């Protein structure tokens, strides 16, 4: 914890802290999200010296900082960097590493480390990060020799961005940051990405020629705009009904006549039933993981429907489902190759595509709901009012199923959320997105539970002069868990009720713009006022708490629950308790 010496470096000779800052610049990294610690004072000094090229965003909570870096990586395909201090800082920040891992997002997390000579004494805040982050990160390392900083950071960026992208954690021992070294910076490598074998594309064509009911699932990370346009051209030209993986919905233009919905938590059961009828699955960039496959129920592991799985890393292909054809390829390269395939003048499955699109549109129509606030109508209004290139960020919870169901995202819009279901993601992600893209409108969807996990991070938005708009879906409960609770233990409310502050006053206390909406007609003017305020804004949506999802109510769940507890108060029917418990997210 010694103070950093002021470094008067000869040209070429720099402190480890300065070398590290220069190494980030050399790799094209332009944003660092951080909560400071005395464990990396020399890097803070290095960041000060490169402040004209690298923006340092000071955050209020490490979970916020790391989620901001994750959101940046998700939006831009290039890693941002988070810095946290040792021990407690690393523990707080670990959630963002888990998000980046499960969401396949490139990210670098640096953790200040204790002085090397104190290792294994359980020194103040000492943690072995290789062991701590091993199951959470794609790679974990520690820099103890300042001469190796450029090499290790260059490799970390390569690891984070290649194959299946993911987070890299780098501990930096304290005294190493002070050492004076004479090393050369290392820039990004020019690597030719994996290309699909031309014979594999011919096989796709042959498989399509035999299909009656093909279906595409688009997902994954590091799509470029031109890659997305190319895959869209291919799928439109072949009129293939296209779904998006969990929280990847904005990868595909929802206004197109072949977009048929998302496969994840809260998907339309009618779509899920149709996917089971498909006779060819084109899984393009998505992992065939638990949310997409509806808890591993959509396909058969050993065969069944033929699956073409296109993924940038071989290890993910066939991980659960044996594909009929696996293609290891960079997704954007694959998309451009697929777009060049000649499409038949007429395809035999157009009626199938129309049928699925009709289901999608029927599912997105505004139902009548009990109560004064119809959230489906609010989502339609939002679609109409928001910018065509807006960025939406999403937290985790039941509220998160309203936007994907009722909004068809436009081509230029982005929608990002944690596929690992991490609450507390939405607000930091919105701030990270707005700092990285200050010219874009940024809208956050978050529940009352998730908002009070990281909502204080809004201070970072004020500090850095950016103004996201936050929609808080307030049902006064941890609604998702209450839903599972009502399904498994009806009538017993245990640990899921919440007491909330006045959310609009919360943001007003920071100097922001607050709105409360409890009637459908109030939403559009409230949103307009929020935009016009130019300030960080929060719109509290006072929901009917009974409307537990867009498809059911607590009352309906209770009415369906048999037998009623009044009839059998204590003993729980064996069949119900023995049932496999529903997955909790
Ligand atoms: C960090 C974290 N903690 C706990 C959970 C478990 N969990 C999933 S959804 C949920 C409730 C979310 O409540 P809220 O944000 O109010 O949204 P709602 O479901 O009520 O719409 C909880 C506790 C989680 N997914 N992530
Ligand atoms: Mg809630």
β-strand amount: 15-25%
The average pLDDT is 94
Helix tally equals 21
| Ends distance | 40 Å
Radius of gyration equals 25 Å
pLDDT < 50 runs, ≥5 residues = 1-10, 573-585
| DSSP helix fraction | 25-40%
The dominant shape is: globular
* Largest sheet properties: 6 strands, parallel
| Beta strands, count | 20
Q: Strand order across the biggest sheet?
A: 3-2-4-5-7-6
Associated small molecules: thiamine diphosphate, magnesium ion
* SSE class: alpha/beta
What distinguishing features does this structure have?
21 helices, binds thiamine diphosphate, 6-stranded parallel sheet, binds magnesium ion, alpha/beta, 36% helix, 20 strands, 585 residues, disordered N terminus, disordered C terminus
Write a structural description:
With 585 residues, the chain is an alpha/beta fold. It is 36% helix and 16% strand. The chain contains 21 helices and 20 strands. The strands form 4 sheets. The chain has a 6-stranded parallel sheet with strand order 3-2-4-5-7-6, sandwiched between helices. It has a 6-stranded parallel sheet with strand order 11-10-9-12-13-14, sandwiched between helices. Strands 16-15-17-18-20-19 form a 6-stranded parallel sheet, with helices on both faces. Strand 6, helix 6 (149-161) and strand 7 (167-173) form a beta-alpha-beta unit. Residues 397, 447-449, 475, 477-479 line the site of magnesium ion (MG). The site of thiamine diphosphate has 20 residues, from helix 15 and helix 17.
């Amino acid at each position: 914890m010694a103070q950093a010496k002021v470094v008067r470096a000869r040209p070429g000779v720099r402190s480890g802290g300065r070398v590290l800052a220069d190494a980030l610049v050399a790799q094209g990294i332009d944003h660092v999200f951080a909560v400071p610690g005395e464990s990396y004072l020399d890097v803070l000094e290095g960041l000060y010296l490169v402040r004209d090229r690298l923006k340092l965003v000071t955050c209020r909570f490490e979970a916020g900082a790391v989620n901001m870096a994750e959101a940046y990586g998700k939006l831009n395909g290039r890693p941002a960097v988070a810095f946290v201090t040792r021990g407690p800082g690393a523990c707080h920040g670990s959630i963002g590493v888990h998000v980046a891992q499960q969401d396949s997002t490139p990210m670098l997390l640096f953790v200040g480390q204790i002085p090397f000579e104190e290792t294994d004494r359980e020194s103040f805040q000492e943690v072995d990060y290789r062991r701590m982050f091993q199951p959470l990160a794609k790679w974990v390392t520690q820099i103890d020799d300042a001469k190796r900083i450029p090499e290790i950071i260059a490799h970390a960026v390569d690891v984070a961005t290649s194959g299946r992208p993911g987070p890299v954690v780098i501990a930096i021992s304290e005294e190493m940051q002070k050492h004076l070294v004479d090393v050369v910076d290392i820039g990004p490598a020019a690597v030719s990405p994996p290309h699909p074998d031309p014979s594999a594309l011919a096989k796709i064509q042959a498989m399509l020629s035999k299909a009656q009911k093909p279906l595409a699932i688009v997902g994954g990370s590091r799509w470029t705009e031109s890659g997305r346009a190319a895959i869209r051209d291919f799928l439109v030209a072949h009129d293939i009904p296209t779904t998006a993986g969990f929280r990847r919905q904005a990868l595909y233009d929802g206004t197109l006549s072949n977009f048929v919905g998302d496969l994840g938590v809260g998907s339309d059961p009618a779509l899920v039933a149709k996917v089971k009828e498909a006779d060819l699955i084109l899984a393009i960039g998505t992992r065939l993981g638990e949310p997409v496959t509806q808890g591993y129920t959509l396909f058969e592991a050993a065969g069944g429907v033929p699956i073409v799985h296109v993924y940038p890393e071989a290890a993910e292909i066939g991980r659960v489902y044996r594909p009929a054809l696996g293609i290891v390829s960079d997704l954007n390269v694959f998309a451009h190759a697929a777009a060049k395939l000649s499409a038949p003048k007429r395809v035999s499955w157009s009626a199938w595509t129309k049928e699925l699109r009709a289901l999608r549109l029927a599912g997105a129509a505004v139902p009548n709901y009990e109560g004064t606030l119809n959230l489906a109508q609010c989502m339609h209004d939002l679609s109409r009012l928001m910018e065509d290139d807006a960025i939406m960020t999403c937290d985790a919870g039941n509220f998160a199923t309203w936007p994907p169901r009722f909004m068809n995202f436009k081509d230029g819009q982005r929608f990002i959320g944690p596929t690992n279901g991490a609450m507390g993601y939405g607000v930091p992600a919105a701030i990270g997105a707005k700092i990285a893209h200050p010219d874009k409108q940024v809208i956050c969807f978050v529940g009352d539970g998730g908002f009070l996990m990281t909502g204080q991070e809004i201070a970072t938005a004020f500090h850095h002069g950016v103004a996201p708009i936050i929609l808080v879906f307030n049902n006064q409960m941890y609604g998702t868990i209450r839903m599972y609770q009502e399904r498994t233990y009806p009538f017993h409310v245990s640990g899921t009720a919440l007491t909330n502050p006045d959310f609009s006053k919360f943001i007003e206390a920071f100097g922001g713009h607050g709105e409360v909406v409890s009637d459908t007609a109030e939403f559009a003017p409230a949103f307009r006022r929020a935009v016009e305020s130019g300030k960080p804004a929060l719109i509290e949506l006072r929901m009917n708490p009974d409307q537990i999802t867009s498809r059911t109510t607590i009352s309906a769940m209770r009415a369906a629950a048999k037998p009623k507890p009044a009839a059998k108060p204590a003993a729980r029917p064996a069949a119900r308790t023995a049932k496999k418990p529903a997955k909790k997210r």
